[in-house]
């Protein structure tokens, strides 16, 4: 804190004790010292001081903050003390509030309190202070600022504030602890042509800055246009009495930082509360809501006589609301004057009021005694529709309710109506269906009716897996006069199965929703669509590809579909649970009618009848007591997949019950029985089109009775053909047999005699072999003695010494002994050789033995006879030709081995085979040889065929 200087204290003491009034120089010193308490002495100088003792006033001129020629004025008291001091800067001076000198003067920056929109263009215009009478200290500083800026208080350059002035008062400026700053901002704007002076307190929280002004006799329209913009009423129709409304007296509040404005005023229609706010941060547009609260007894006909019918409706707490934008109930509740009776409001003029539901007998249905209703308000009754958003759900029966309900009352006498608009949630079985629409209420009959189409699809309706119901429509009706509603409900829509769709309807029991039935009509539907849409995909995956192709070719027409979750009785007809459909069927061009049982997890079974087929050679008719053929499509799990026709088939003289299998390229079936009523056979037939004879291909496999017939009859025919040849060949064969028997007899005798001779020869050979061994052994002994003699002779020759005489004698004796032994051995050897020589001329070939040789000669003669007979037989065979071959085979093998038919079949288009004459393919064994043969077989004359076959075989 700055203190008063010594000189100034001296003057105060002097002035208080002296009767003399201070002069100009004294006051100059006093003022300088007073200013120095709050200002730096370098920031001011007093250049001229004048004293007016009569007025106790000091005036003068000086320099302040660098501005020269500044006039000041000061007042002093009776005790010659400064009371207050003021100065005013010239217009040319532009000393900004942001200057540091001003900050030092006020002990802080005043710029923080100034709206940012003014920037630096806030200039000091006046400055002054007042002095406390008690302690002679400066009690407060007073600063006045001006701003040439035009401040647009609200978005969109609307409602500009001009002639802006700011006044600040700093209390206790020399005491930091007690220092307080107060600020006031004021300026002028216009509501239309009416000037409005606004004032606001400046504080630390800029967001709370509020400019206020008193209003009197201003127009509502001009006021809104001034604040919200000239286009505030563009495209909005308002009653004339509202648009021309004059505000008699009230207040205007503007919150520029919050981009809000508010007018509260009185008018001839009642209290007016107008709220204006920038709704979107980035938008420069101002929205507004004007709430007019008429006084008690107000009649809407006072606005316009055309609205007189509204006076008869019990509408209490009426309010007229103008709004620039639509607002729902939640948004309108934020308006303080609508907090207690908020409702949805539309752009333009609206009527809000409380509607008594008890007088309409709607309190039970809507669960409320009154509603806050709103309606657009114009000069015409037809524009008035009273609406109210109901916060609770409206129950309609045990499983149906309406939510997001909008109550709607149209009061025009020529078009009076009451309705509920909202979302109807209907629980059908386990499904929740949602419908949006309006429910009409008939007050005279206390009944309701509702009709709507659901936006979404109904998947798996009533649990019918795979079905999709779209464009689902609901028709609902009932009475709301009692406490509970039991409505009548009906559903309809479009059902889709695979690629095809049709119309559908749903029978629904509101007392027991589980007892419902879905029915539909579809113009056409392929079996593949059924399998791919309403059957578990696992069933389809197990089907062979060929079967899947077949399903794509079978079509039901004019299909009636039914799905019944639980047993149901409608009128006198009972329905068992299940998923069924029926209709005309087209199976590869074969037409009929059938029914289908569908089980999502297990597959489908279709059965029915088709039209009989009569092509002459081919007929398909009903079997047993059935007039028409049947069909079956069995595609159930754990069953062999089957698509087939069934009935009595007549063809090639055969008639039997069979199944006609349906394949991707047509039909196929097997048939067994008497072919042309003659022989047993198996027929395998196929056709691209059963109704076109030329497309039926037939393959027939004949059986054993034909084989036996051919074997028997052909053998008989051959026997007749080769009888003479057999006699001739038999005679020639007899001679061969006789000659052969003679040869065989001689062979036996020769073998017998040969054995006797060979036995004798073997005995003699044994003796020869023994003699030969004796010769060999004797020769070995002689050779051994000769070797020993040669060895002793060499030893004797080596004993040539005289003293070896004795040894030589011994050796000579040994040599003599050896020679003796050799002589004995040689004699034996020669004897054995004589014996061996005698045996060496023995005969070893039994055939040259006289007894054997004579028999062989007889055999040669017999063989000649046999060969002559054979030559005779072969010549006869050549003469007989093929007949001879067959006769020979029969003679040699017998007739049973002559022919053996192993296979016989024929094939072709049914039309070409139906006469009975066919080209038969056979595999047979003819005279021991396998062969394939094709020949014409006439079932009408089999024996003639046998003769032709026999002749052909003889020519083979």
UniProtKB/TrEMBL annotation:
Q: Which residues form a coiled coil?
A: 761-795
Q: Mind telling me what this protein is named?
A: AsmA-like C-terminal domain-containing protein
Domain of life, per UniProt, equals: Bacteria
Entry keyword set = Coiled coil, Signal
Query: Where is the secretion signal located?
Result: 1-19
């Amino acid at each position: 804190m700055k203190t008063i200087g010594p000189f100034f204290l001296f003057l105060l003491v002097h002035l208080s004790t002296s009767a003399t009034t201070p002069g100009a120089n004294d006051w100059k010193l006093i003022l300088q010292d007073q200013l120095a308490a709050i200002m730096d002495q370098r920031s001011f100088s007093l250049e001229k001081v004048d004293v007016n003792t009569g007025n106790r006033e000091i005036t003068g001129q000086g320099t302040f903050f660098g501005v020269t020629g500044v006039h000041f004025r000061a007042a002093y008291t009776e005790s010659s003390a400064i009371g207050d001091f003021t100065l005013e800067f010239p217009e040319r001076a532009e000393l900004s509030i942001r200057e540091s000198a001003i900050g030092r003067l006020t002990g802080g920056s005043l710029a923080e309190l100034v709206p940012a929109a003014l920037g630096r263009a806030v200039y000091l215009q006046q400055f002054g202070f007042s002095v406390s009478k008690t302690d002679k200290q400066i009690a407060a500083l007073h600063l006045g600022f001006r701003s040439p800026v035009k401040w647009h208080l609200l978005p969109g350059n609307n409602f500009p504030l001009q002639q802006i002035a700011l006044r600040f008062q700093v209390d206790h400026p020399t005491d930091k602890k007690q220092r307080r700053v107060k600020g006031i901002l004021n300026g002028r704007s216009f509501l239309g042509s009416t000037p409005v002076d606004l004032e606001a307190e400046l504080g630390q929280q800029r967001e709370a800055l509020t400019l206020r002004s008193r209003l009197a006799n201003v127009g509502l329209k001009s006021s809104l246009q001034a604040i919200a913009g000239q286009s505030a009423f563009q495209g909005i129709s308002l009653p004339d009495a509202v648009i021309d409304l004059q505000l008699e007296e009230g207040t205007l509040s503007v919150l520029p930082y919050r981009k809000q404005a508010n007018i509260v005023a009185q008018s001839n229609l009642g209290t007016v509360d107008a709220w204006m706010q920038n709704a979107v941060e980035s938008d420069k547009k101002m929205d507004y809501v004007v709430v007019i609260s008429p006084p008690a007894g107000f009649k809407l006909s006072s606005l316009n006589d055309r609205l007189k019918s509204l006076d008869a409706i019990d509408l209490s707490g009426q309010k007229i609301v103008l709004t620039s934008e639509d607002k729902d109930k939640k948004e309108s509740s934020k308006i303080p004057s609508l907090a207690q009776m908020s409702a949805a409001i539309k752009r333009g003029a609206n009527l809000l009021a409380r509607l008594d539901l008890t007088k309409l007998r709607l309190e039970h249905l809507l669960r409320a005694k009154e509603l806050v209703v709103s309606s657009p308000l114009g000069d015409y009754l037809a524009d008035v529709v009273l609406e109210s958003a109901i916060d609770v759900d409206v129950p309609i029966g045990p499983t149906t309710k309406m939510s997001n309900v909008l109550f709607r009352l149209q009061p025009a006498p020529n078009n009076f109506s009451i309705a509920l608009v909202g979302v109807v949630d209907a629980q059908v079985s386990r499904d929740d269906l949602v419908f949006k629409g309006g429910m009409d209420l008939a007050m005279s009959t206390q009944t309701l009716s509702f009709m709507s189409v659901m936006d979404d699809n109904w998947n798996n309706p009533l649990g019918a897996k795979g079905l999709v119901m779209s464009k689902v429509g609901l028709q609902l009706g009932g009475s709301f006069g009692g406490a509970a509603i039991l409505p009548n409900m009906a559903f309809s829509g479009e059902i889709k199965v695979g690629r095809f769709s049709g119309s559908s309807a749903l029978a629904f029991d509101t007392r027991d929703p589980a007892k419902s039935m879905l029915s539909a009509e579809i113009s056409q539907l392929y079996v593949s669509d059924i399998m791919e849409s309403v059957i578990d995909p696992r069933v389809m995956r197990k089907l062979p590809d060929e079967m899947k192709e077949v399903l794509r070719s079978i079509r039901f027409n004019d299909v009636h579909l039914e799905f019944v979750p639980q047993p149901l009785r409608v009128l006198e007809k009972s329905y068992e649970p299940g998923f069924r459909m029926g209709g005309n069927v087209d199976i590869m061009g074969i037409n009929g009618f059938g029914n289908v049982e569908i089980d999502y997890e297990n597959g489908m079974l279709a059965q029915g009848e088709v039209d009989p087929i009569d092509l002459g050679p081919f007929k398909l008719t009903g079997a047993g007591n059935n007039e028409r053929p049947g069909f079956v499509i069995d595609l159930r799990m754990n069953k062999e997949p089957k698509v087939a026709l069934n009935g009595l088939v007549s063809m090639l003289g055969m008639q039997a019950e069979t199944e006609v299998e349906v394949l991707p390229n047509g039909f196929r079936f097997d048939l067994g029985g008497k072919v042309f009523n003659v022989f047993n056979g198996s027929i395998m037939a196929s056709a691209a089109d059963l109704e076109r004879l030329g497309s039926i291909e037939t393959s027939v496999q004949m059986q054993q009775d034909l084989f036996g017939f051919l074997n028997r009859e052909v053998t008989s025919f051959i026997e007749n053909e080769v009888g003479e040849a057999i006699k001739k060949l038999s005679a020639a064969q007899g001679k061969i047999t006789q000659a052969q028997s003679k040869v065989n007899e001689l062979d036996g005798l020769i073998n017998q005699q040969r054995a006797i001779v060979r036995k004798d020869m073997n005995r003699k050979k044994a003796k020869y072999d023994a003699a030969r061994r004796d010769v060999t052994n004797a020769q070995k002994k002689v050779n051994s003695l000769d070797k020993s003699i040669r060895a002793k002779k060499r030893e004797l020759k080596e004993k040539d010494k005289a003293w070896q005489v004795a040894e030589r004698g011994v050796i000579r004796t040994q040599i003599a002994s050896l020679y003796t032994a050799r002589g004995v051995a040689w004699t034996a050897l020669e004897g054995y050789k004589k014996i061996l020589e005698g045996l060496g001329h023995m005969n070893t070939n039994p055939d040259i033995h006289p007894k054997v040789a004579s028999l062989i000669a007889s055999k040669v003669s017999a063989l000649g006879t046999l060969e002559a007979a054979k030559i005779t037989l072969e010549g006869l065979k050549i003469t007989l030709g093929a007949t001879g071959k067959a006769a020979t085979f029969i003679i040699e093998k017998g007739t049973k081995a002559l022919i053996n038919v192993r296979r016989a079949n024929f094939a072709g288009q049914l039309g070409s085979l139906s006469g009975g004459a066919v080209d038969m393919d056979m595999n047979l064994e003819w005279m021991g040889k396998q062969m394939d043969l094709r020949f014409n077989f006439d079932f009408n004359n089999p024996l003639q065929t046998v003769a032709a076959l026999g002749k052909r075989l003889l020519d083979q």
